[in-house]
Amino acid sequence: MDDNQIVNEGAYPDDEYIYNETFIGEDGEEYYYEEPLISLFNVVKEYDKGMVKALNGINLDIFEGEFVSIIGPSGSGKSTLLNMLGALDKPTRGKIFIGGIDLVKEKDLSEFRQEKIGFVFQLHNLIPNLSVFDNVQIPLLPTGMSNKEMKERISEIIRAVGLEDKRNQRPNKLSGGQRQRVAIARALVNNPSIILADEPTGSLDSKTGELILNLLMEMHERYNVTLIIVTHDNGVAALAERTIKIKEGQIIEDKYNY
Ligand SMILES: Nc1ncnc2c1ncn2[C@@H]1O[C@H](COP(=O)(O)OP(=O)(O)OP(=O)(O)O)[C@@H](O)[C@H]1O
Ligand SMILES: [Mg+2]
Q1: Is 5 helix (H, G, I), strand (E, B) or coil?
Q2: What is the pLDDT along the chain (258 residues), one digit of tens a residue?
């Protein structure tokens, strides 16, 4: 297997690629087609009856365990794209597959979201009258996990983001960076395979931003979580293994940073 070359090439639904198996190419070499975790085909998202084209034909493959940054001007469609990947909204046209699930056809995506996705929103959306612990608990409530198991898991993740001493505080008593850490703990508590983070460092000073980013990268490395970050910050973008640039709802650049 060591000598195999991985062909990170987009396959299309109608093509007859056999993923995750080796085959011999025309040059006699052995090749391997890795199946993308996420595939988008000609994704279009329109708002206001087509007056606004937020996404205008996105084709994209993302592989398991990748760390990808998404950059582009304000209004270029970054949050819209992230919402599509998190199954928070459906495209107007096109196809999206994540982990073998057809996000356009599938009617009930709540289970998918709950099991696979950790979302860190542009505004962190914590519930003000719940404690840190209770905010982090929210994604676990529908899972049927025992109370004991839940407590252990929540304590572990609160420790991981360095907020042990704040676990009984409400969010309005916390700093912006601490709130963002709660949002990250909440996004990670159910061991998602994909973390989608929309400007996770946008409202923070550079030092706190760096802490948050290190935290996300540590989770990515430790658990092989696929990490997708939207950012305005070119420095942050360059930390990712791969950077995708969006303009007017289209991908204008897709490059590996090494
Ligand atoms: N719910 C909506 N209804 C109508 N238009 C929308 C809606 N959401 C987004 N848009 C429009 O779609 C386009 C893309 O918006 P999006 O929020 O994806 O941009 P963005 O790249 O995330 O920008 P920013 O960097 O400012 O967060 C914009 O023109 C925006 O005005
Ligand atoms: Mg946005």
Answers
A1: strand
A2: 344 444 444 444 445 456 667 778 788 888 777 889 999 999 999 999 999 999 999 999 999 999 999 999 999 999 999 999 999 999 999 999 999 899 999 988 988 998 899 988 877 689 999 999 999 999 999 888 999 999 999 999 999 888 999 999 999 999 988 998 899 899 989 889 999 999 988 777 788 788 888 989 988 998 899 999 999 889 899 999 999 999 999 999 999 998
CB of 71 within 6 A of ligand 1: the answer is no
| Cα 48 to Cα 58: distance, rounded to the nearest angstrom | 19
Which atom of ligand 1 is closest in space to residue 72's alpha carbon? 21
Query: 52 in ligand 1 pocket by Cβ < 6 Å?
Result: yes
Residue 52 Cα, ligand 1 centroid: separation in angstroms?
Answer: 9
* CA-closest residue to ligand 1 atom 12: 54
| 152, two tokens | 């252990």
**How many other β-carbons are positioned within 10 Å of the β-carbon of residue 107?**
4
Closest residue (by CA) to atom 5 of ligand 1? Answer: 47
DSSP state of 208: H
